[in-house]
Amino acid sequence: MPKTTRPKSKATTARPKQETSRAPVQQRNATESCGRYISPINVAKRWDTSRSSVDRVAKREKFKQFFPAGEGKNGSVRYLLKEVIAYENRRLT
Fold it and tell me: Would you say 77 and 83 are in contact if contact means Cβ atoms under 8 Å apart?
């Protein structure tokens, strides 16, 4: 019986990316994204500083802390946005 050979497969080429018809994502600033509360990470981005600096300022200025997802070591923290804005306004004047 003669040996049959398979045709060699073509080298795989990268497919061109298809363009999606999604609307462009608009960046929201920190005041629009969370309403009444803001996370320390968002405050850090807003102030262009580290999370530990935000924690230090929040403790010194006695920001009210809210724990929407539990307390303790792994609980999340939120601050009142109006307190953050008031602090920023005091620092600017």
Answer: no
Give Dmax (Cα) for the chain: 94
- pTM for the structure as a whole: 0.57
Pairing of strands 78-80, 37-38: antiparallel
pLDDT tens digits, 59-80 = 999 998 887 776 666 678 899 9
Full set of structural domains in the chain with CATH: 31-92 (1.10.10)
Measured between alpha carbons, how far is 43 from 29 in angstroms, rounded to an integer? 11
The DSSP secondary-structure symbol of 71 reads S
| Distances from the Cα of 45 to the Cα of 40, 48, 81, 84, 90, angstroms | 9, 5, 14, 13, 19
* Secondary structure of residue 38 in the 3-state scheme: strand
Radius of gyration of the chain from its Cα atoms, rounded to whole angstroms: 26
The amino acid at 81: L
